[in-house]
């Protein structure tokens, strides 16, 4: 299978079944010509446009400082664009429509796993008792059934990240934003969490926007890869990964995966000014 460069590089005339299915998804959110400037002249993001559809798994891939986290924060509503706008289908979104996972699990050390997962519901005024079933369901989805009463200090790094993901999904959001959630984990744990994230996503049927520095991770997880360059932060390529879901571990050793990684690496090299630096 030839990697499908959505920006015109190698797109074939007849769309693949995966591309046709992707195009048929309902619109969810659009980033329209968004620029974000910090202070007088730090252009963190310039003219970003992105149409996100329900069920997309989009990776934002690029070198340090290209505006990936800034884009995620704008989409999350944690910051406002300097110009341009973000539009949600249906006229808007509620806080419950969105879950956010950061690189650090950011758990409350004094609270149990279940109480940590309760946090977004608690902020909406819901009692722990009324949320218990949802909390248990979220913990089961991330593979932590039976750890409700444990404290963060008793968990491994991977388990803490699972709690963080359970907390983001407990409200059953339409979209989950993830900012390099697995960057601090060892490779074996990271691979396992990549597999499990796809299974969780399939169960929740939600849209994911995932920030990463890793070509390999972006190809394994996503069906769209948005490649960004720095100074100013901007989108330079969009690549489609047409491998259907569910993706088994064997995809990692396939010729298709290698071809997609090569295409993404080339795009990333271009983003880095052809520096040819090694990628994770
Ligand atoms: N609050 C801020 N004030 C000033 N400059 C900022 C702020 N946030 C980000 N920047 C600058 O905007 C640019 C983009 O930053 P951003 O964190 O979005 O990049 P990134 O691609 O996520 O980087 P990394 O991969 O290292 O996390 C950088 O030059 C950064 O220094």
UniProtKB/TrEMBL annotation:
Claim: Cytoplasm is one of the keywords in the record: no
Ranges of residues in domain SRCR: 72-132
Any one Gene Ontology cellular component term annotated for this protein: membrane
Family: Belongs to the ABC transporter superfamily.
UniProt cross-references to SUPFAM superfamilies, sorted A to Z: P-loop containing nucleoside triphosphate hydrolases
Gene3D superfamilies linked: P-loop containing nucleotide triphosphate hydrolases
GO molecular function annotations of the record: ATP binding; ATP hydrolysis activity
Boundaries of every ABC transporter domain copy: 29-257
Protein name: NitT/TauT family transport system ATP-binding protein
Keyword annotations of the record: ATP-binding, Nucleotide-binding, Transport
Organism this protein belongs to: Albimonas pacifica
Tagged with keyword Nucleotide-binding: yes
